[in-house]
Amino acid sequence: MDIVKCTKVTKTYRQDTVVVRALSGASLSIQEGGFVAIAGPSGSGKTTLLNIIGGLDYADSGRVVVDGNVLTDMSQSALAHLRLHKVGFVFQAYNLIPVLSALENVEFVMLLQGVPPAERRERAKAILDDVGLGGMYDRRPAELSGGQQQRVAVARSIVSNPSIVLADEPTANLDSKTGASLLEIMQEMNEKKGVTFIFSTHDKMVMDYARRLIYLRDGRIVEDKIRNG
């Protein structure tokens, strides 16, 4: 079953007097349970495509369907509801809340969802255990390494059981060993829990882990291939 379907998606931005076309008629389908990398050079449109799939931005034209929801027809409030309940995000800059502990950062999405406190805490502890941070519940982001912060971000992205996790350059600020460890965690979550992961990346290691590679250039999909392990 397709969890993401984009049809002839276009997006342009205006920079002063210059119009930049970020996406030019991009069409793709991603099946539930996928582990997919969207790759390409800087300016190819991969982050723009990820943001549109995640409901963080609107397409200028075309159709975007995520988990049965037509994003191109939805209001800002409906998109916010979709992001809260259906989509997990992992950002290059971690985007953790500095004054909250690792446990509280992971709990935060569930707090917004109205999950009862005891259940929030139990689920947050379990997912932090899963990503190897069981002894670090009370540490704030400044007390964690970059790799540990990104593990908290991954835990936060999946703790609410989203349909899909979007990861924008998740290994960009990590050394290769830490990046590989993080990818193995996400791969395990994908295989054991069936979470769909879509990455935007120019990191060859991420591409090597992905089971499907979609290449963008100048806002167009120029290659789409399945990897056989």
Description of the structure:
With 229 residues, this protein is an alpha/beta fold. The chain has a single domain, classed as 3-Layer(aba) Sandwich (Rossmann fold). Helices cover 36% and strands 30% of the residues. It contains seven helices and ten strands. The chain has helices at residues 46-53, 76-86, 102-113, 117-130, 146-158, 176-193, 204-209, and strands at 2-15, 18-31, 35-39, 61-66, 69-70, 87-90, 164-168, 196-201, 212-217, 220-226. Strands 6-7-8-3-9-10 form a six-stranded mixed sheet, with helices on both faces. It has a four-stranded antiparallel sheet with strand order 2-1-4-5, covered by helices on one side. A hairpin with a 2-residue loop joins strand 4 (61-66) and strand 5 (69-70). The longest helix is centred in the C-terminal third of the chain and has 18 residues, at 176-193. The chain is globular, with a radius of gyration of 17 Å. 40% of the residues are buried. The model has no long low-confidence stretch (mean pLDDT 90).
Features:
single chain; 229 residues; alpha/beta; Rossmann fold; 6-stranded mixed beta sheet; 4-stranded antiparallel beta sheet; 36% helix
